[in-house]
Predict the 3D structure of the following.
Amino acid sequence: MWESHEQSISRLAVDTTSSQGAVSATKTVVESSVSDVGLFASLGIDGSLLVIQFVNFALVFLTVWFLILKPLVKKMEERKFLIDESLDRAKIIETNLSMSQVKFDEKIAEAQIQSNKLIADAQIEASRFGERIKDDARKEVEGLVAEAKKNIAHEKKIMEKELREETIHIVLMVAEKLLGEKLDARTNTKFVEEMLTTITPDKGSTEIKL
Amino acid sequence: MDLIAEILSKLGFDWKLALMNLINVGIIFFLLKKYLFGVVSKKIEERREIIQRGVENATEAQTKLEMASVTAREIIDDAKKQANGIVAQAVKDSASLAESMRLKAVADVEALVTQAKQTIASEKGRMKEEIYRETADLVLLALQKVLGEQIDSKKDKKIVSDVLARLSE
Amino acid sequence: MAEIHIPGLAPDVLFKIGSIPITNTMINVWLALLIFLVIGILIRKRISLRPGKLQNGFEYVLELLLPYFDQVTEDRKKTMRFLPVVGTIFFFILLSNWLGLMPGTGSVTLDHATVLRPANTDLNLTIAMALFSVLISHIFAFFSVGVFTHLGKFVQIANVFKSFKDGPIAIFRAMIEFGVGLLEIVSEVAKILSLSLRLFGNVFAGEVLLSVMTALVSAVIPGPFMLLELLVGLIQAAVFAMLTLVYLTVASHEPHTAEHGAH
């Protein structure tokens, strides 16, 4: 175990030295190119390497931009839109909520009005109903009274008739007694007629007040 | 441990540099915590709460509106019931009033009829008396005209009053 | 044909401030710090419920990350508590790795030493970060389960004393647990090593690869490798951050659960 570690370490050491060797080699290259490039080189910039790096970077950037960043930006725009919309909606809803109390009150008030109207209507209807029933009753009562009056009048008529007949009877009896057989059939008849017209009772005196 | 230290140093480890870097990382941590994560997560949370509240508010508003409808319907239903009650009561009251009116009327009419009958009967009696009283004179007068002579003897008068007395019995 | 420029394992010291050496990787760290500072100030200044472009972008990335974090912590509150630590690590490693792809890395020199070098090709930085990650997990643990409870996870001596009255089997088990506790200490060191070496190895290898490719074929061909490095940078940042999150989550569990987590 330890041995293998040792080995790997020594290998690593070798690798490191070799890479360091490479670095020093590169440094030499850089040094040798300084005089060629001038200004850039005096600033410690490897011009050709920098240009290559820029080209590579531009390529990578374009690829990433079109393949990844653009869709990502679109998604982000969507997110922003969604957030704006949600916040707007939340605001609207908040207004709606405060308005819903008003609406609630309005609805209740409307219902109250409607209910009051219903009750008022019912009262009117009820009184009309009552009136009609009372009217009916009144008419019935009037009918009853009229009937009674009719009955009374009829009764009165019967009475008058009875009285008349009785009167005739009386008169005839009296006359018969008085005259005995003096009167013939003709005069008798004439007498009776005359009597009847005389003793027809005066309407005013016999009328009955109700 | 020495071995590890040796390997690490071969890999370029230098505790001074590491410490320096640890400080750098610490600075970056506090910077990001203060300027980015803290504020942004607070804002995200705030926004989430607003939107959440919006959703809750929407539900509440909806419930309120539904409740208003229900309550309004209840009020109207109550009113309808009350109205029906009023009408029913009125009908009942009126009917009973009408009934009592009718009963009273019947009683009145009966009383009236009875009274009328009594009046008729008494009138009849009175008229009868008058007839009896006046018939004697009338008959005599009539006979006088028929016969063309005076009938005033005591004997005739007596006959007449006898007949009347007998008839009136 | 250009000479192959392969960076050394150790960063180049550019200059010294007093006795403190300033290396080229440190320049990259400061560059990252500067970028974060600018972004931070800009976002903080314009922070709003309706996010601007920068804030929206940052929030978008955060919202992409948070579900992954939640999978580890299983609790959004914990995620938000750990976010500054894990987020810092993630964004810093990501930015450092990607900064290494910028032109100028390796081509600008000062005193024959490259001025810019990807920050994570410096083992000192990766060890510092691993140390930061492990240390902060312990600090969180101290706050969430208590100093003694947390230390008790590593030095399980209390159980040994308690086991004396429960008979030989209990004593035996307590001894094993004590041993396991000591192993946990070793594993904490291993965490630092594995975190730092993994990141260092990957990023350094990437840097070497790019250097070689650029030297060999100049333009165009290194492009795909740079894309690969973009991905590697992202993956390494994610791995480091997620492992830190796991350490944080496990460390802030109560001891019993922590033991199970460690096994």
